[in-house]
Fold each of these.
Amino acid sequence: MANKGETKCLKITNTNAISGVDKTRRFTYKQKAGKHTKKTSISIGYILKDLLNIADNNREIKYIIDNRYIVVDKKLVKDHKLPVGLFDIIEIPKMDKYYKVDYAVNGAYVLKEITKEETKYKICKIVAKKLVEKGSAQLVTNDGRTIITTNLAYKPKASIKLDLEENTIQEYYPLEKGRDIFVIGGKHIGLSAKIEDITPGTMQRQTLIKAKEKGIDFETTEKNVIVIN
């Protein structure tokens, strides 16, 4: 039998917690692989219909996309299956509405309304660094970006404040004691906290972050946090 390829829809039973989808339904919109993985993203079509409630069906979603009403991270959306993930910036200029993708404390994605000024930048975590030529380095971020820089002080596990229009680094947030973090994994997902201590990792153990949020101490691994300030 010939290979039919991937299915175009996604069964509710196969969705992950970040979608926060209504389990009484049978299908939802399936996102493509892209700058975010399928495990860490939801489709822009799902956002328009189920989170923003500005479309009732697939025809209306495609009409909105085809008329170039939606912008994600300063780029026009051309596909209703575009994957959208943590801290992505969604703009709807016709409605003068602007949103940032965030985590709720239950691990589901929510949209936080922001100002037009706040759409100019986003926080990205540096997940890899590679020297590409003398005096330059290539940074890879959690949202699939590659940035060439001459500042070799930037390190993986830290974060940057990225100018989305110029694709340049505005600020650098190293992973260190006293920094503010946002928890993106584990049982404390969705919490904002301050780093109290860092236990360096070994070949057998990951780096551990001890943090405090509203007087509550907790510990998690480095991969579960992103520095936000």
Note: Residues 180-227 form one domain.
Amino acid sequence: MDNDSENLTGMSGLFLSQPSSKDVPLQPAPAISWKQQAQRLHKEAHLFYFVFKHPRTRWYTKCVAACSAGYLLSPVQLIPSFIPLIGFLDDFLILFLGAKAIRKLTPPDVLVECRELADAAETRRKEEIRSRATMITSVVIATVWIGGAIIASALLLAYFRH
């Protein structure tokens, strides 16, 4: 009998000595940078654009997409966007609910096809951005704008001095 009680005590010690959930350190979730979030949002916008243009998308899904985009671009809103923080919360809510509804209403095969199109569009866009001609054009345009601003400032200064 003593042998059995010793075995039970040894076994209970094994179970009690294992770390509990309180002893295991929690790993923090990896933080997503603003740039990554903006790229993800841009990709989702492409996805919804392709869903809207797809011939097998139902009419009411297209209506949800058009109404969501229309509300965001409309000058008449429930809470005007120029009100700090609260003005953008209603826009975010409409965008979030519209995106959820579009995902729910779109057939899965159409969603997969449109996601592939959005991936291809993002790859093409990245290639275009990296092209040398685009970079040179951007520098030239920025130089012209800065030069124009300096000339306009000098002309305004000369006008007000006289």
Note: Confidence is low (pLDDT under 50) at residues 7-21.
Amino acid sequence: MPRIDFKKINEKVSPITILFVALSILTIFVFLFFLILPDHKSIKKIQQDIKSASADIQVINEKFLPVYAKAKKFEVIKFEPRFPIPNRKNMDRKNLSTLPDLFQKLALEHNLKLSNKDLDPGFLNTEAKKIPMFLELYGNLQNFRSYLIAIIALPFFDSFEKININLMDNTIKKFSVDLKINIK
């Protein structure tokens, strides 16, 4: 193996060249240091963000995935109303006088006392297709519930506008109902 004679190389290479090579190497290291180190820090920051996001996703999966699964089950279930909703028909204006007696009969069937049953006769002079009615009853809340269901089952019922429930004493409650009836 040939021997390298450093003295000859030293004589051929000037100190300026050595300084230039040293500065070049130093410049390369500085550039690498300032390019790679920030990227390395940035990579660590990204890794921490990924870990944080993974933890958040895990929490979301633990909390919301069961709820989502239950919601998906409800999507398959077909809705069948519990209460029969009849085909809606308009009541003839001639038969409106029978309404107070009908609501009185329904109240008695549901163990309620009907104290006020006002039909607004002013609407009869108009071409309105719906007539408002006010009912005031006394009784038990469960009986009132079944009474409302019976009213909904009437073919000429349109809608409840307002329902008020007031406590009279421990067992008896006062109920007020504003409703609308479809008329011809």
Note: The chain has two domains: 6-76, 93-182.
Amino acid sequence: MTSIPSSSDGFAAMDRGLKLPAHCTTVTAEDLRVRLVLATDLDGGIEIDASDVESIGQAAVQLLVAARIEAQAGGQRFAILDPSPAFVDRIQRCRLADAIGLELQKEDAL
């Protein structure tokens, strides 16, 4: 998959996807939407690096859920890579881990 171009909005291009900025707000949601649309138009899977996320708003979360649905419908892989604790917390509090495809490690009961 080709790189998705980056700009000065905090998003960084990766070889197969994009890296979310520290603060995914309503202001950055439009750019995220455009990048996700571009990613679904390319062959291969979509990879979202969420390692730097400190906060993520409703609009960005909705876009990620929609992108996963679109990727699945098109037979593409969709993965959230290295999600930060803040990202995981937000997704869990919204009860969207399954919808976004966030695979959480389950702690073994001792």
Note: The CA atoms of residues 51 and 82 lie 5 Å apart.
